[in-house]
């Protein structure tokens, strides 16, 4: 047992104590921050807080109600002009970003012309739409005007009451299982490199021959797997801590509304965690098996990418899964290794996944774990001393025995 | 020349025989086609028409739904909704019973404090945002109609107060059409086709990926040969420039093949798609664009694969090569990121976009994006090609110089300073 720990500790230190590992550890949080920053930048480019003009020839906006929130500069300022010449002069002067023209025939056709030199901000367009809406309700009691301005919060509930989905978009609690499943997929992508390197590196530099003089193959492989598991666990813990910190900042420092009423769905989180761990084990064991069969480490890295693509397959079918989360494609993909992780978390957004499907999915994964682990240990044992010669699948499953020449080379 | 062809043939045969290459080049597009075919077969073809507009209710086959309204807000069903399609229930239990019995498809719960909170609960089996028969607008419309006094004209104006037409004063100087009409050229102004709208961006991304992938192949190849000492032997009988040209040509053909297969698969998927991402009828890519694409891909590939080959000669092993590759790809990456930002997307012929499309290290993807948008003065792609061609000559000479014994045999760790010095011939 001590030898297994020795190998695990060596492999863990080899990966985790590198300077570049800090970069790998922080890469996902950095990418997430960059993505959020980039999105915020894109939104800021789309918005424009400069005032907006309007020329009203109908009298609808003769004594307009201001938009709720106008006093706090949350809304774009609306400036009335008596005629189009004035509005045009203001536009050319840069006083306003654009102006709307309500012509005489507005009541019949509802046609409004937007005039601009540069595309106005999306927020300005939305604010003018709201401005028109509340002024059509101007003679109503204030609470009705407020309701018209604020709109509705429609929540769709499943008949059994177990699922609620706001039509405005999912909540943090609903989206979290999906984030966790993506984190597991990222973990698989990172672990591919470690696992393949662990299997091929010592084989390629011939150290493995020396190692086998004092250690059995099963102990070596167990130690290596434990080492990689340790590295991946460290990554996962770092990401979780970073996620908690990010949510804390978003909720308490930046006061983002989306994070205020977080209702975590622990059953969904547990389901995704189980599916994630099982998928990770299947993928890791399979990578180990492939790593034992390949001749060069580079080939293994390309295959690692293909595993990643397999995990991402449900994204291609996201519309089909979304349209019919209980359909044959969605159910089938929930049962299969690789595709199950994302499919389950996507379906979980909309429906309660039947217990029998979860149980069947877990069973399929457990069988796959057993099968791939058997395959991996066998492939490793057969391929550990083969240099420059590819191990065939038939040999791993024992249908083809190595020839005398091959045995001689080994 | 004979040695160049020999190197070329070797690279071609080796790369084309590699399972990982075949899997990525042919496997992934085939997987995409397979998934698309399965999805098309299983997808429900005839769907109920839906509308988010009370005015569309004449042609819209509305489901029968129930509602529970303890505050009594819904006094009258709007006259434009079909009668007996919104049925009141005294409590949730009776509505649930009707739902279970199949008398109604869904029901709404309007809370007592609806006016203050705006909360509305819609109980519906099998709801997803992707479902095409969601009709929660029916109750929203009924509530708006009732709380604003039952005046259908006013309620309808609050619901949809205006139809906006745009007058872009700057566009009066430009031939590009926008709005609801058909577009003359692809680009962000083109609203009527999503694909036409994003086509320049797609071209930008594709060129970035294909050039980076092609250069990556070269890096792996050179660094591997350096690591296993094959290069030392090769240098005895082949001149560095001959080897570099042979490798660039061989791996270039391999990358070009990959690009053609992926683009063809993408084109087939779009032709079969027929929905959101369909190409407009009669849309064809002009031959001139295809020729420019070939020229810019080849030149871009040669520049970056040469730089990668130099990097491969400097790094101690394959692993270090992968880590260092970002240094070479940085100009391409910066050009790509600047190009996806709104200043370039909204003004594809502005100063920044023009500079990025002429500067040799950023030109291929950015110029192709601009050519797809159209109206690029002919001197600009010609100047870009000339500058890239000059850059190719300079870079190949510089990189061939990096294949010296002191670089190939040395095992010292890689550094940016060392790479740049070697590129400038100072190492």
Give a quick account of the main beta sheet of chain B: strands, pairing sense, barrel closure: 4 strands, mixed
Number of domains of chain A: 2
Which regions of chain A are unreliable across 5 or more consecutive residues at pLDDT < 50? none
Query: On the 0-100 scale, what is the average pLDDT of chain A?
Result: 81
Distance between the termini of chain B: 29 Å
As residue ranges, the low-confidence spans of chain B are 44-51, 173-181
* Radius of gyration of chain B, taken over Cα atoms and rounded to an integer in Å: 31 Å
Task: Describe the overall structure.
The complex is a heterodimer of chains A (410) and B (427). The longest helix of chain A has 37 residues, at 217-253. Chain A folds into two domains: 52-151, D-Maltodextrin-Binding Protein, domain 2; 160-409, no CATH class. The mean pLDDT of chain A is 81. In chain A, helix 1 crosses helix 9 (217-253), helix 7 (172-204) packs antiparallel against helix 11 (297-316) and helix 10 (266-293) packs parallel to helix 15. In chain A, strand 5 and strand 6 (164-166) form a beta hairpin. By secondary structure, chain A is of the alpha/beta class. Chain A contains 17 helices and six strands. Chain A has helices at residues 2-16, 19-46, 84-93, 106-109, 122-136, 142-150, 172-204, 207-211, 217-253, 266-293, 297-316, 318-323, 328-335, 339-350, 355-383, 393-396, 404-409; strands at residues 52-56, 78-81, 98-102, 111-116, 153-157, 164-166. Mean pLDDT of chain B is 77; it is low at 44-51 and 173-181. Chain B has 17 helices and five strands. In chain B, 36% of the residues are buried. With 427 residues, chain B is mainly α. Chain B has two domains: 2-24 and 185-423, no CATH class; 61-155, D-Maltodextrin-Binding Protein, domain 2, CATH 3.40.190. The radius of gyration of chain B is 31 Å and the shape is elongated. In chain B, helix 10 (287-314) packs antiparallel against helix 11. A four-stranded mixed β-sheet of chain B has the order 2-1-3-4. Helices cover 61% and strands 5% of the residues of chain B. The longest helix of chain B is centred in the middle third of the chain and has 34 residues, at 194-227. Chains A and B meet through helix 2, strand 4, helix 5, helix 6 and strand 5 of A and helix 2, helix 3, helix 4, strand 4 and helix 5 of B. Strand 5 of chain A pairs parallel with strand 4 (119-123) of chain B.
């Amino acid at each position: 047992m001590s030898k297994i720990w020795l190998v695990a500790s060596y492999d863990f230190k080899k990966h985790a104590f590198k300077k570049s590992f800090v970069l790998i550890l922080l890469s996902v949080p950095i990418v997430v921050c960059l993505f959020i920053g980039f999105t915020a930048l894109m939104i800021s480019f789309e918005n424009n807080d400069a005032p907006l003009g309007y020329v009203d020839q109908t009298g609808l906006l003769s004594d307009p109600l201001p938009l709720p929130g106008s006093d706090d500069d949350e809304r774009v300022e609306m400036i009335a002009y008596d005629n189009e010449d004035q509005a045009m002069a203001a536009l050319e002067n840069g006083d306003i970003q654009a102006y709307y023209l309500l012509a005489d025939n507005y009541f019949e056709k509802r046609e409004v012309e937007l005039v601009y030199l540069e595309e106005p901000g999306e927020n300005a367009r939305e604010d003018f739409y709201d401005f028109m809406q509340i002024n059509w309700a101007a003679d109503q009691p204030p609470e009705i005007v407020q309701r018209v301005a604020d709109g509705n919060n429609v929540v769709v509930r499943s008949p059994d009451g177990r699922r609620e989905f706001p039509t405005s978009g999912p909540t943090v609690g609903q989206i979290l299982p999906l984030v966790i499943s993506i984190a597991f997929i990222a973990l698989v992508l990172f672990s591919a490199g470690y696992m393949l390197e662990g299997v091929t590196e010592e084989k390629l530099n011939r150290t493995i021959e020396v190692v086998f003089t004092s250690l059995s193959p099963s102990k070596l492989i167990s130690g290596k797997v434990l080492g990689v598991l340790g590295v991946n666990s460290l990554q996962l813990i770092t990401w979780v801590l970073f996620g908690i910190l990010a949510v804390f900042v978003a909720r308490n420092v930046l006061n983002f509304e989306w994070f205020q009423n977080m209702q975590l769905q622990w059953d969904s989180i547990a389901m995704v965690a189980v599916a994630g761990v099982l998928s990770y084990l299947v993928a890791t064991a399979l990578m180990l098996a492939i790593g034992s069969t390949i001749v060069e480490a580079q080939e293994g890295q390309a295959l690692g990418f293909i595993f990643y693509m397999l995990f991402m397959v449900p994204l291609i079918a996201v519309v089909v899964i979304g349209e019919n989360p209980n359909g044959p494609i969605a159910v089938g993909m929930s049962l299969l290794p690789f595709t199950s992780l994302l499919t389950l978390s996507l379906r979980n957004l909309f429906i309660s996944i039947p217990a029998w499907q979860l149980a069947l999915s877990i069973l399929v994964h457990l069988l796959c774990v057993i099968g791939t682990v058997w395959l991996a240990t066998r492939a490793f044992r057969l391929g550990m001393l083969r240099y420059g010669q590819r191990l065939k699948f038939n040999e791993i499953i024992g249908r083809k025995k190595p020839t005398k020449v091959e045995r001689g080379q080994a | 020349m004979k040695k160049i062809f020999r190197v070329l043939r070797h690279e071609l045969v080796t790369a084309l025989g590699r399972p990982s290459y075949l899997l990525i080049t042919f496997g992934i597009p085939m997987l995409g086609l397979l998934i698309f075919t399965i999805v098309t077969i299983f997808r429900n073809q005839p769907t109920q028409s839906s509308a988010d507009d009370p005015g569309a209710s004449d042609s819209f086959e509305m489901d029968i739904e129930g509602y529970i309204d303890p505050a009594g807000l819904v006094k009258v069903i709007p006259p434009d909704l079909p009668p007996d399609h919104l049925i009141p229930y005294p409590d949730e239990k009776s509505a649930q019973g009707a739902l279970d019995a199949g008398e109604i498809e869904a029901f709404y719960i309007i809370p007592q404090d609806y006016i203050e909170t705006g909360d509305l609960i819609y109980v519906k089996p099998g709801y997803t945002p992707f479902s095409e028969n969601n009709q929660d607008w029916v109750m929203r419309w009924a509530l708006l109609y009732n709380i604003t006094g039952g005046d259908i004209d006013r309620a309808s104006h609050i619901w949809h107060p205006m139809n906006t037409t745009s007058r872009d004063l700057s566009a009066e100087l430009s031939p590009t059409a926008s709005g609801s009409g058909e577009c003359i050229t692809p680009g962000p102004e083109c609203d009527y086709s999503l694909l036409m709208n994003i086509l320049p961006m797609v071209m930008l991304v594709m060129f970035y990926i294909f050039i980076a992938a092609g250069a990556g192949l070269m890096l792996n190849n050179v660094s591997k040969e350096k690591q296993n000492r094959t290069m030392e032997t090769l240098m005895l009988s082949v001149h560095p420039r001959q080897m570099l040209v042979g490798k660039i040509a061989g791996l270039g053909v391999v990358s070009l093949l990959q690009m053609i297969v992926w683009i063809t698969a993408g084109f087939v998927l779009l032709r079969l798609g027929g929905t959101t991402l369909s190409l407009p009828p009669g849309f064809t890519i002009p031959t001139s664009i295809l020729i420019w694409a070939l020229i810019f891909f080849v030149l871009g590939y040669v520049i970056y694969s040469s730089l990668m080959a130099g990097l491969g000669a400097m790094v101690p092993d394959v692993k270090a090569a992968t880590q260092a590759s970002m240094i070479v790809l940085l100009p391409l990456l910066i050009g790509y990121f600047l190009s996806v930002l709104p200043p370039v997307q909204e003004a594809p012929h502005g100063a920044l976009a023009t500079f990025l499309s002429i500067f040799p290290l950023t030109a291929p993807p950015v110029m192709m994006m601009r050519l797809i948008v159209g109206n690029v003065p002919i001197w600009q792609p010609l100047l870009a090609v000339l500058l890239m061609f000059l850059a190719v000559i300079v870079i190949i000479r510089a990189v061939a110089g990096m294949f010296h014994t002191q670089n190939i045999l040395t095992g010292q760790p890689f550094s940016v300073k060392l790479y740049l010095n070697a590129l400038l011939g100072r190492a």
